Amino acid sequence: MKLEFFGAAAEVTGSCHILHIGGRQVLLDCGLIQGSRRDEERNRDPFPFDASGIDAVVLSHAHLDHCGRLPLLVKRGFKGPIYTQDASCELVAILLADAAHLAERDAEYKSRKTGKKVKPLYTVAEGERVIRQLQNRKYREIFEVVDGMKVRFRDAGHILGSASVEVWLSENGAERKIVFSGDLGQYDTPILRDPEPIDRADFVLMESTYGGRRHRDRAETVKELGEILTSERSRKGNILVPAFSIGRSQEIMYQLGKHFDEWDLGRFQIYLDSPMAIEASKVYWSNTHLYDEEATRLRSENGGMPLLPNLKLSRHPEESMAINRIRSGAIVIAGSGMCNGGRIIHHLKYNLAREETQVLITGYQANGSLGRRLVNREQSVRIHGRTIPVRATVHTVGGLSAHGDQDDLARWYECMENRPPVYLVHGEVDSQEDFRNYLGKRNGAEIHLPKPGDFLEL
Ligand SMILES: [Zn+2]
Q: Where would you tag: which of 131, 136, 211, 318 has the fewest CB atoms within 10 A of its CB?
């Protein structure tokens, strides 16, 4: 039995590893490569394995960098089951439908622009085929994936349904246990439970996205949000909140609901302007058995989720366009999270030049994104071919990351009393090296940085 590293070894996206056991092959995740256009073109490359030779997929959670190449896997011949947690199953269906729809639209646009027929990465129909192969499993349920391989999902506290994966392997009398962290959340993330402790493993595959840094304290972050929303300025214009549809949008709504009276939010009209975030919110608000203690208590006190009486859901384009006519008193939560596309672009176009506007940046903004330009306080930005002066106030509110920082990652690892060797995946090289030094000093762990194509004999 052995493990082969393919994607997200020494990079952040495209998570994909392959386990070989008793002549069978099982993928851990099948994520999309994200980043620059050139990086994303690599998604069209053939897999370095035969898709029809894969027996099953075990999927940690519903983010595109973990599940976004599943439609390609199916299209190229994979016919087996895709196991993921219950809520994750619902979110994957929403996410892949949206990704396929955007891929089709993008291809149409490029075809028109270049005069050549550009094929989408995958079509809506191809996205739907994946959904038929999904198999939902509960946290803590042990199930067989193939002969000689059993799996159990444990809550990873990253987004709803996210899992760390315990894998038990047995071959010719030898037994091994591998733990794949998936993406780990911060401890004390609202709504979600903390990453669940796992007591031992022979090998650990671990994410290290923020292995090189510490997040700002969450309580400080929430206090800062409160100061912005109660300031004199907030009485004048609109407040725009770019947010990812799964996770961040729900967390922001939850914070607004939790502090509704304290921050006097009844004077605003709050909009969730994203069909996908609306769908994802349904999954969040209906899987109440996965909530942490605080969310369970607030939900029962308020008689349900979300906790916002003045929330308007904006599904249709006309509803979204109507928001552009509002001059003040609106809080608009819309995607995309990095302002690269989606409806937030239109709201920015209409509001950035107005001094009374405030923009709340609550998530990571990649280099080159419009969101990063705003964070960098550029004086003007280009939107839809027009130069827009930035007179709005842009607040960067740190501390709401869905990923644990180095202390969170170390805390999770240290639950494993036997201190197994660690293979760092899913992180840029700098943060992997920082985390290797940090963890090594803290507890003497043996840490490896595998490269794509490397094998680990188990
Ligand atoms: Zn993730």
A: 318
